[in-house]
Structures are given as C-alpha cells and as structure tokens.
Amino acid sequence: MKLNNWTQAPGLVRRRVAAGATAAAMGVTAVLGSGLMTAAHAADSVAPTGIVLGVGATESQRAVSWYSSAGTTQAVEVAPTSHLVNGQFPADAVTFPATVAANTVNGGYNGHATIDGLQENIAYSYRVGAEGGWSPTYSFKTQDFEGDFDFLFFGDPQIGSSGNVAMDGAGWSDTLNVALAANPNAELLVSGGDQVETANTETQWNAFLAPDKLRQYPWAATIGNHDVGGKAYEQHFWTPNTDRSAPFYNGSPSTRSGGDYWYIYKDVLFIDINSNAYANGADEAHVGYITDVVKAHGADAKYTVLVYHHSIYSPADHANDTDNQKRRQDFPTAFSKLGVDLVLQGHDHSYSRSYAIKNGQKAHPDEQPGATQVAEGPGGVIYVTANSASGSKYYDLTAPDPTQDPNYGPDPLNPNSHWANSVENQEHVRTYVKVEVLKNKLVVENIRSGTCDAPNAAVELGKVSWCGPNSGASAAQPVGSTVDKVVIHPYRGNGYDITADASTPASAESGWLQQTTEGGAGTLTLTALS
C-alpha cells in the first residue's frame, strides 16, 4: 500500500503521513489534495454538524458527509482506533481532503470526503473538520471483505410527518438502537427513502441525523418523494457512482436532487434509483441505467439488489396511484430479464413481500401465501416493501380494487391481498427488515422494533385508532419478534445453487418449496424449474 508524504508549505497546518511499515499498519490510502485549513482561519472555525457515514464504491471505502459554517479547506482524519492514545489521533493519522461547497439550504457549507484503502477486520476512528475546528471522534469497524454478511433495510422515517419532530426522532432512534443491538455485525444500513417530511427543513434533518449509529454504520441513502423539492438530500448524502443526467428526471429540476447510483459490497451489486421521476421517458432512462450497470458489473457480484422509494406492488394507500400503475408496467419485465434477485422499496408505510414475480406476473401459480422458502425460478424477482421505521406515519392495508387498476386485483389464493403479494402486514408498530446474504440464498426477515407503547408517534398522537396484530384484536408482539421470514433461492442459469443440508428443507414444487426427505433424514434436494 502506498501513501504519499506531505510536505509543509508556508502558512499551512498539515500532518505528515508516514510511509512504509507505518502506512501498512494504518490500512488506509489517502488521496491528497490541497492542504488543511490555514492557521489564520483555524481559530475562527466551528466544528462540523450533521455528520453521517455513507457507503463507498466498494467495501474498502466509506464516505463521510457533513455541514459546516465555514467554507475553508476541511478533511476527514482517520486512524485505527488502537492507535489513538487517550483519545488523541497519532501523528501518522491519514487525512482525506474534502470537497466543500456553498450550502443552498441554510447559507452555510456542506462537505464530503471518501475514506479509501480500508482493510478488513479493523476498527477505525475518524473526525472531520480542520485544526481548531474538529468534530468529536467517531468509530466504525470493517469486517471480512468476502463471504456472508447481513444488512438492514429501513422504511420511511419521514421525520416530522406526525407533526411532532421530537416524537418521530425518538422512534427513529429507538429503531436503530434495537436493530443494531440485535444485529451488531450488520454491515450496511439501507434506506427506503423519505428521511424527512419536508425536503429543506433542517430541524427534521437534525432529528433524523441525531443518532450516533449513523456515524458508526454506513447509511446507503435513497431519495423519496418527501426528500425532493430542494438540495438538502444530496447535500447531506454523498453517494458513489452517481448519475444525475437530465433524461432520468424528465427535465424537472425539482426531482433531480439525489441521482441513480450503484456500488458493490461483497457479493451484492446494489443499484439505487431516483424513482420520483417516472414520466416522459424517465422510467425508460432508469431501466437503461440499470441495464448498463448490470452489463458492466453484474458478473462481479453473485446477487443484484435494486433499491428505490416507490413500491410498485404497494398494498396500502399508494396501491393504485397513477405513477405506481405506470411503474408496474415499466419495471417488472426489465428486472426479470436482467436477473434481479431482490427489490427493496418504501413509500407505503406498511410491510409486504411479493411472490416470485416474472415479467409482471406471478412466476409460479402454486406458490402459497406466506411460504417460508421460495425458489425464484428463471426471471423470478422478490419485491419487499418496508413499514415505517420511526412510527411517524402508518398506512392501512387496502382491499384489492380492480376498478382502480384492472391489472392489480385480488390474489386467487388469498382474496384479501393483492395478487402480487405473498404477505401483507400492518400492525401500527415500528419494524425493520434484515437481509442475510449467504453463499447460496438470501434470507429476508421483517422484525418488530417497537410495540404499541411509546415511542410510537402515530399511536401516541391518535393518528391511528388501533394497534397490534389482526387490526388490534390481538396483543402487540414483543420487540425483536418476527413478522415475516422467507428464504429465497435464486436461479442461476442452469439451476439452483443449493448446498443440501438440514438447514435447507426443500424441493421445488411448481416454483415454491416444500419440505421433503429422500433416502432418509437430512438428504434434501431442490429441482430446478424450466
């Protein structure tokens, strides 16, 4: 690993970065630019605020974004946590220069920098700013850069949507605390969009960014409809490989904050699109972007996961919105042809998990509602919609209504649900989604992070009239209990990549899985479907 040596220039306060053995021990590579803040400005600086850790292009990168009252040169300083002495950074800490720009929202500045060259299984500490104006020190830990991993998916915190920012923030913070206490080795926090209620209201952003967990685990941002209409979203979040080309946004500047972006983390190619723009060819442009990324990088990963805000198989208030009806026409066939494994969505403040969907139709007519193991089959895609992670707003499930959309009627196997969905759930309690990425399967689990008790703003403020399973007829289940869990077996060209063991009790029957044993206990098979 190579590190550049810094040289002192007149009027600049810089750290000299050591090379050789010390650099190797650091486990980071700095891309050096112009120096840190000048000494004349250092005393006037104020510590940055709104700091958030983000994903990089690979598992060896992290992005850091923040707000600042000063437009002077700033940076991120990084060192292995074990190198800090009494909380002080060592002389050989690595500094990554930031891009600092005028902030169009509050008149200050926003900055971001990419930490590069991270090594696996190391705890790192970092701070942002410059001499005389450093932030507090935060830490994160890398894990193995290959193999299995877990990530957590969060739907619509939408801080401020209950009318009480403090209550919404409390619910959001509690969900993060609960989720990461239960899953401390989760490696990514993935957003379903709508971080806040109003795009440029910084009191809402401050409440969203308040939890220190967002400085310890990388947040993979997604832009929702409540995040557009201003530039606060992209000023708070830097994302890798981002494209904001005009065709994606049908010429509307109001929807252009954010952008389509991608990154690879271990065995997963993540592609995140701005679904706020959909008309005048924008959906086709998004599909073109996804197609280009899959063609260029799909072979570098085992799974492809798409993330965007608007749930096309929404079970609640947005089920028959005109824009969702259009996306249901524009997206599914393309996703099936591109070999997408999993689609993660928000927007509808309720939970749903689809059947395996191929080309906009149920792939296997006999797949049963709530099946705990599913073989996707060629072209099969599972779509998941996340419920509210903060409790600020919930949407009740709707009955399938073919008069609103003749192509989105009831499920013949479960007429109370829409035909696309294996599971639909609303209990008016906070939840999050855990995704386990394993060698030959994905495990998706929707988990309760709250009960009917506070913090649960929509319940506390009377925004909903009941709480608990079965429309409130049953008592709320405990924090950490499972709403839904499914094991997904993706199709891989000539069959399923399955390791036959007692943890995979399945064989393929019309595309959905049933437990079978052949030749005695523990001998298990999965037959590929054509």
Report on the structure:
The chain is α+β, with helices and mostly antiparallel strands and 530 residues long. The protein contains nine helices and 28 strands. The protein has helices at 21-26, 39-42, 165-182, 202-209, 232-236, 282-297, 322-330, 332-337, 457-460; strands at residues 49-55, 62-68, 75-80, 94-97, 99-102, 109-115, 123-129, 138-141, 149-154, 188-191, 219-220, 261-265, 268-272, 303-310, 342-346, 351-354, 357-358, 361-362, 373-375, 382-385, 410-411, 414-418, 421-425, 431-437, 442-448, 482-489, 507-509, 512-514. The strands form seven sheets. Strands 11-10-9-24-25-26-19 form a seven-stranded mixed β-sheet, with no helix packed on it. Strands 12-13-14-15-20-16-23 form a seven-stranded mixed β-sheet, covered by helices on one side. It has a four-stranded antiparallel β-sheet with strand order 1-2-6-5. Helix 3 (165-182) runs parallel beside helix 4. The longest helix has 18 residues, at 165-182. The chain is globular. The chain starts with 20 loop residues before the first helix and ends in a 16-residue tail after the last strand. Pfam families: Metallophos, Pur_ac_phosph_N.
